[in-house]
Amino acid sequence: MVTTAEKTNIGAISQVIGPVVDVKFSSGQMPQIYNALTITGKNPAGNDVSVTCEVQQLLGDNQVRAVAMSGTDGLVRGMEVVDTGAPINVPVGATTLGRI
């Protein structure tokens, strides 16, 4: 989960095509490739949306292309996107043994 203190790099969705999400960030706040991006909030219909994406490409003009790890239903242009500053993590231990 991302805390308020970690909300340093905030962008906005500029395009959604299937599982691919393009995000525009402010100048100097571009995430690194493989960083996890989180999108949480409500869509215009009032439904809760929570999607994690992974940055795959730096497009230039302060935009990145990311791939969603779940469905992109409900994502719309302008929604807030937060760069977590780290790659996607998977817990390791006895509880996940044989489940991945």
Please sum up the structure shown.
It contains no helices and six strands.
Q: Termini, distance in Å?
A: 21 Å
Radius of gyration: 14 Å
* Gross CATH architecture: Beta Barrel
CATH topology description: Thrombin, subunit H
Order of strands across the biggest sheet?
A: 1-2-5-4-3-6
How would a textbook summarize the main sheet?
A: 6 strands, antiparallel, barrel
DSSP E strands, number: 6
Task: Name the CATH class.
Answer: Mainly Beta
Structural class: mainly beta
Arithmetic mean pLDDT = 90
Query: What share of residues are in beta strands?
Result: over 45%
Please indicate the count of domains.
Answer: 1
Low-pLDDT regions: none
Number of helical stretches of at least 4 residues: 0
Helix content: under 10%
Spatial shape: globular
Which SSEs are present, and which pair or pack?
Blueprint: E1 10-17, E2 20-25, E3 35-42, E4 48-60, E5 63-68, E6 80-87
Antiparallel strand pairs: 1-2, 1-6, 2-5, 3-4, 3-6, 4-5
